[in-house]
Design goal:
The complex is a heterodimer of chains A (830) and B (115). By secondary structure, chain A is of the alpha+beta class. Chain A contains 24 helices and 33 strands. By secondary structure, chain B is mainly α. Chain B has helices at 3-21, 25-36, 43-63, 68-79, 83-108. In chain B, helix 2 (25-36) packs antiparallel against helix 3.
Chain lengths: 830, 115
């Protein structure tokens, strides 16, 4: 017995340790059994990355579907009905992007805590405070289940679930194994969550906070001039009758006394932004713009209309986009990029029409200061002298084990969600709260045969507002800034409004005839790059007041104006263009010799050297460039010295951010050499423009030297200073592509700024000739499986600005064998 | 049957059982084999060796996939281990687990230390 125990006890102890380690892990170590299992654990991920092919049966299919996967991993889906095409797309997207599908849905639904616990509670609370679950429930309830839009997302859901239900253990994506979670079945509601999240990503127009913060320091008159409703340099999307940029800025009032009312307004707005998570989220948002342009046949080298589009968004691995081609004979033949989670081509082309979007950046949300019956636990709010009940919703947050982590009560007025902030109870109205889905619009737009049909399909589209550029094979080109633009009693929406009066509510929306629009303009091309869509002299109706600098638009239009025979190659080159219009505008002003006899200070050491170093710079942000770094340092110093009155003394960590006027305002100020803004209040002298330019040059050189070494050295190379960083969706460094040298800079057509995490998420050029031809690229690859050859195979071409020709077969047998990676037949399951 | 043949047979058994039932097959097969194997088969040696062999075969099969090398590098980075160390851990885990299970099985069979 003693001998038995001597053998049994240590064996059992080691076995128990192994079983515990295998089944549950230890500390931060996940359960190692399923992880290391070479048949279905992490090692099997490589087998799951093999191209999909052969024959599979799929529940819900009505007829067989042929899928040809090309060498880029793009599925060409040939189905007998559109619903079967959507089912197949859902199936294939789930196979390639399951983590992405579920992760973004959970983020929008505020359910990340169920995966990662308390660490995600803040993000989840914000999603629920925005009312996404309520919005999706209402949208779904309001959808006609017989509509094409609903049926498309339901069919897509069936496809996703067919993949999930049929997954082998080896198919479980790596990230699920690392997180120790299992995929949840997909529902049509998830597509609506995705669309809501996209609307949030693109709700960037935030005119009020910066202006109020500036007014708090220098008064409203100056603040209105520094943060104007209308872009100071007009190069609108809807071309002006006289086709050239127009300077709008007059004399800029100098800094006046701060307005304490504005200070309170800024505090309220900052509180609202913090509570709802709206508005700009940091310097990276600058690159959340996009470009598109189209050239009419008269201006193209081949005599056919051309269209280019490159949406700029956060870059990720896998990409935000999933490329696909859906063919249903006689009904649909559309190719382009889908959002994983939605069954339609968002940006792409069919056999007749091509289209691309840029974000309009319209002002689509307002805040209201509400009066409530109980400051701690309100049940009613006051409107026009009467108390109205608040709608209340209990939101429960679960942890990984399914236990309750937190419980919140989210309240809603008739406008939208209500939040308690440091500045009292605020509610928010937002156009997406109308609950109208864009599903039907995209179904119809994908089938459009003319520009007119496309615009008609999109006429009631609401959010996020987009500059929709479209061209067809007949040679028509058009652009329309389409979305729901609220009509406000106050005209503008850049203040916190009085919630006790229904008169402050939105009064419907702008009718379609007032949307910025252009069709076949005489100049022969159209473009948009997030600039103010229409010159206020042409159409003064308020759309927003937070327009990014027009630099990309200026550059695109300058090159298109100068080319009377635009080729496909020229379109592709322009997408990768990295010469900054901002640099070209400022350089002559910086390099001009200081000749102001009334200057207040002597020319500082270093200014002449900085001028010499910048002389001859072409404004190109190329990887091997050694002057861009100095220009950017000088610009930083110039802004800092010019706008010093906007910096609150001794309050660097204020909740209200430091307002910084757009560089287009700074450019206008350069024409006003004795404007009081040039004076540096920290010195006894009264500086003028030339004093500040020289000081900025000298200080910029000193800063560049300090941070990057001697001029012209390796440290001054642009790619030593700035690189693109494409993070994995879970920000796992080993699965990310970091430190990528790029030919791109701030405000260039091919943009990259800040931490380099945003940029061109898809580049596409389409020629609408007798046969539609297209070229495209995106950073990453089709597969979300890190072991797949298609995880990041498109990255090198994207970095070099090259486009791949896109195969566009009309039938399953039409694709050249050399271009085929695999074939798959999906059959209905009994 | 010689211990070598027992090991080969167990290797096939561990591989098959893992492919069908997952990693739990390792302690279960180890326990049963430790209990049933005759002393001449040297169960405390051949059972862990068979488990390592079985998983090595499965690992080899996984390594035939195109993306294996990429994956191994990524996993190494992810877990702060060299790919070789990770592969070694993958083989050690069944060896230790099956060895311990065999020890328990063998003890439960009430066989003496002379075996």
């Amino acid at each position: 017995m003693h001998r038995l125990l001597l053998r049994l006890v240590p064996g059992a102890a080691v076995l128990a340790g192994c079983v515990v380690l295998g089944a549950a892990g230890a500390g931060r170590l996940p359960a190692v059994g399923p992880l290391l299992d070479p048949a279905s654990g992490i090692w099997a991920v490589a087998r799951a990355a093999e191209p999909i092919g052969g024959r599979l049966s799929l529940r819900g299919l009505q007829a067989p579907v042929e899928v040809v996967v090309d060498r880029r991993g793009v599925p060409h889906i040939f189905a007998a009905s559109e619903l079967d095409a959507y089912r197949a797309l859902g199936f294939l997207t789930a196979r390639d992007r399951l983590l992405q599908l579920e992760l973004q849905t959970r983020a929008a639904a505020g359910r990340l805590t169920e995966w990662v616990g308390e660490v995600a509670l803040g993000a989840d609370r914000q999603a629920r405070r925005l009312g996404f679950p309520r919005l999706v429930e209402q949208s779904l309830a309001g959808m006609d289940t017989a509509s094409e839009g609903y049926r498309s997302i339901a069919a897509y859901a069936e496809g996703v679930n067919a993949w999930i239900d049929g997954m082998r253990p080896a198919d479980l994506p790596l990230e699920y194994r690392l997180l120790g979670v299992r995929p949840e079945r997909w529902s049509p509601a998830n597509t609506l969550y995705l669309l809501g999240r996209m609307a949030l990503t693109l709700a960037l127009n935030d005119p009020s906070l910066a202006k109020a913060a500036a007014a708090a320091r220098v008064g409203w008159e100056a603040a209105d001039a520094l943060f104007p409703v209308n872009a100071p340099l007009q190069e609108p999307i809807q071309p002006n009758p006289v086709d050239r940029p127009r300077q709008l800025t007059g004399p800029i009032p100098g800094p006046g006394p701060g307005d304490s009312g504005a200070a309170r307004a800024a505090t309220r707005l900052a509180a609202a932004h913090a509570a709802f998570g709206m508005g700009r989220r940091g310097p990276e948002d600058v690159a959340y713009g996009s470009n598109n342009w189209a050239v009419s046949p008269a201006r193209s080298a081949t005599g056919h209309a051309l269209l280019a589009g490159d949406p700029h968004l956060e870059l990720s691995l896998p990409s935000i986009w999933y490329q696909a081609h859906l063919v249903v004979p006689g009904r649909l033949d559309v190719q382009g990029v889908t959002l994983p989670g939605a069954p339609w081509v968002i940006i792409g082309f069919n056999r007749e029409v091509a289209w691309s979007f840029t974000n309009t950046g319209a002002d689509v949300n307002d805040y209201y200061e509400e009066s409530v019956d109980d400051p701690d636990h309100p049940a009613r709010y006051r409107l026009d002298g009467e108390w109205r009940p608040l709608e209340r919703r209990v939101e429960v947050f679960l942890d990984r084990a399914g236990d309750t982590l937190a419980v919140d009560t989210v309240r809603f007025t008739h406008r939208g969600p209500l939040q308690r902030t440091d500045a009292g109870w605020l509610s928010m109205a937002w156009t997406i709260y109308s609950g109208r889905s864009s599903a039907d619009h995209f179904v119809r737009a994908n089938r459009a045969r003319t520009v007119g049909e496309f615009l008609e399909a999109m006429r009631d589209y609401e959010a996020p507002a987009q500059n929709m550029l479209v061209a067809d094979r007949r040679g028509t080109i058009a652009v329309r800034s389409t979305g729901r633009y609220p009509r406000r009693a106050a005209g503008r929406g850049d203040r916190v409004l009085d919630g006790t009066r229904s008169a402050a509510d939105w009064n419907g929306a702008l009718p379609l005839e007032y949307y910025p629009f252009s069709l076949n303009p005489a100049r022969g091309f159209l473009s948009s790059a997030n600039q103010q869509p229409v010159d206020p002299a042409v159409n003064p109706r308020y759309l927003g007041a937070d327009w990014p600098g027009p630099w990309r638009a200026l550059r695109i239009n300058a090159l298109l104006r100068g080319d009377s025979a635009v080729s496909v190659e020229a379109m592709a080159r322009l997408q990768a263009d990295h010469t900054g219009a901002r640099a070209l505008a400022f350089l002559p002003r910086l390099l001009a010799p200081a000749g102001d006899p009334a200057r207040a200070t002597p020319v500082p050491d270093g200014a002449a050297e900085a001028r010499r170093l910048l002389a001859g710079w072409t404004g190109r942000y190329a990887r091997d460039d050694r002057q861009a770094v100095l220009f950017e340092a000088v610009m930083r110093e110039l802004g800092r010295r010019t706008w010093d009155e906007l910096i609150p003394p001794g309050a660097p960590d204020s909740a209200v951010p430091r307002p910084r006027p757009d560089d287009a305002v700074l450019l206008a100020l350069l024409d006003q050499p004795d404007n009081p803004w040039w004076d540096d209040r920290r010195t006894p002298e009264v500086e003028r423009r030339d004093d500040v330019i020289d000081a900025a040059l000298a200080a910029g050189l000193e800063r560049a030297r300090r941070e990057h070494g001697e001029p012209g050295g390796e440290g001054w190379r642009w790619d030593a200073v700035h690189r693109a960083n494409i993070h994995h969706l879970l920000r796992i460094p080993a699965l990310s592509a970091l430190g990528l040298p790029v030919d791109a800079g701030p405000s260039t057509v091919n943009p990259s700024s800040g931490r380099g995490t945003a940029g061109a998420s898809w580049r596409m050029v389409v020629e609408l000739g007798p046969e539609v031809r297209a070229w495209a690229i995106y950073p990453g690859g089709q597969s979300g499986n890190p072991a797949s050859r298609h995880y990041r195979d498109l990255l090198p071409a994207w970095l070099d600005g090259r486009l791949d020709p896109l195969p566009n077969p009309a039938s399953a047998d039409a694709l050249d064998r050399a271009q085929i990676e695999s074939r798959l037949t999906l059959r209905p399951r009994g | 049957m010689t211990p070598l043949r027992w090991m080969l047979l167990l290797g096939a058994g561990f591989a098959l059982a893992t492919a069908v039932a997952g990693w739990w097959a390792v302690p279960l097969v180890g326990l049963v084999a430790g209990y049933l194997l005759p002393a001449a088969a040297r169960p405390l040696l051949v059972v862990p060796a068979g488990a390592g062999l079985g998983w090595a075969v499965l690992l080899l099969r996984a390594a035939l996939a195109e993306g294996f090398t990429t994956l191994a590098g990524q996993l190494g980075n992810l877990l702060a281990l060299s790919p070789l160390a990770l592969a070694t851990a993958t083989l050690l885990f069944p060896v230790v687990t099956a060895g311990a299970a065999a020890l328990v099985g063998d003890a439960l069979a009430r066989r003496g230390p002379a075996r």
